[in-house]
Amino acid sequence: MIKLRENFFEQNGGLILEQLLSCQRESLEKTCQIFTAEELRRATNNYHESRILGEGANGIVYKGILSDQRIVAIKKSKIGTQIQTEQFVNEVIVLTKINHGNVVRLLGCCLETKVPLLVYEYVSNGTLFQHIHNKGQESYPSLSWELRLKIATETAEALAHLHSCISTPIVHRDVKAANILLDDNYTAKVSDFGASRLIPLDETQLLTLVQGTFGYLDPEYMQSSQLTEKSDVYSFGVVLVELLSSRPAVSFDKPLMERSLAMCFVSAMKEDCLLQILDTDIVTDSNVDVLKEVANLAEKCLSVKGEERPSMKEVAVELQALRKVYNMHSKESENFAKALFGPYSIDIVHDCGSTSIAAFTSMKSERLNPFGERYVIQ
């Protein structure tokens, strides 16, 4: 049994992982907790189907309850292939470098089983994809524009951190709505770093096999195989359009020229037909200007040429400013209504239809653009 565990440890990339971490003067035990196979079997009730949180092409994620009553998410590969072992090692190395509130935390791993297991913090409220595309169902109430803008901003901040704020920049390479988890407070957590790549500081791009999800893939990366941080910017632009439209990145049931959400959106922007693609449930008199600004930002992210796209840091700053403007404008509208109607009881609705209260508001809101210059939204 001991010999078998040693074989699994080596097969699952344990020796490679130890070597890579030793180069960083770290040990596997110090970097993440090492769980036994028995601990995780008990935590998942022997990987019972009732504990399945999600399933993809490469593996299954289970909800686990540890002996200390901590709730965790346990990712189990379906087949122990060389590629999946490499992705496992890559994900551990990448996540040990990241400490950010909007990136899912790696708690530990298990290498003594037939396939490697990763243990993460448990994020309780599903994925952004589920909330956008299953909206109206009991488990996934429709997201207001306020929450959508919050989620977009936090996701951008996480990606900006990966690109700019750690010693070796990281390109996620699979940014999509299904890889953005939400907790009970709708805090965004970027997940799934199996495809991510570290970009050495003396390089701006890497030559790789094209990997990602159809509908989110950067067209420039698809043609050249040259991976850069701007590839994440393009994918994030698609997520922004999903938040604006509540439409999926790809619709296979539509005619060929209408299947790509990104292409439909860029075409609508060129024809000045933005309102045709926006989700009408989130449009109000009070947020239409901010919606247009976010749409303009998404269009920049979806530029065909990577050099014409903003950096994720610029995107994050822009969204932070827009969120500040929106929150301030919403507060002003509410205060104005209270002053106008005095003691009368009224409902201020921010996430459906148009509201007559917003029509009374003509105040101008200032904000900073990414380069520090002040300008005004009418």
From TrEMBL:
Gene3D superfamilies membership: Phosphorylase Kinase, domain 1, Transferase(Phosphotransferase) domain 1
Keyword Membrane: yes
Alphabetically ordered keywords of this record: ATP-binding, Kinase, Membrane, Nucleotide-binding, Serine/threonine-protein kinase, Signal, Transferase, Transmembrane, Transmembrane helix
UniProt xrefs under InterPro entries: Kinase-like_dom_sf, Prot_kinase_dom, Protein_kinase_ATP_BS, Ser/Thr_kinase_AS, WAK-like
Cellular-component GO terms for this entry: plasma membrane
Residue ranges occupied by any Protein kinase domain in the UniProt entry: 47-322
Catalyzed chemical reaction(s): L-seryl-[protein] + ATP = O-phospho-L-seryl-[protein] + ADP + H(+); L-threonyl-[protein] + ATP = O-phospho-L-threonyl-[protein] + ADP + H(+)
Membrane-spanning ranges: none
Example of a GO MF term: protein serine/threonine kinase activity
Membrane topology reported for the UniProt record: Single-pass type I membrane protein
Residues binding ATP: K76
Highest rank taxon of the organism: Eukaryota
Cellular localization per UniProt: Membrane
Any single GO BP term: cell surface receptor signaling pathway
Family per record: Belongs to the protein kinase superfamily.
Name under which the protein is recorded: GPCR kinase
Species assigned in the record: Parasponia andersonii (Sponia andersonii)
Lineage: Eukaryota, Viridiplantae, Streptophyta, Embryophyta, Tracheophyta
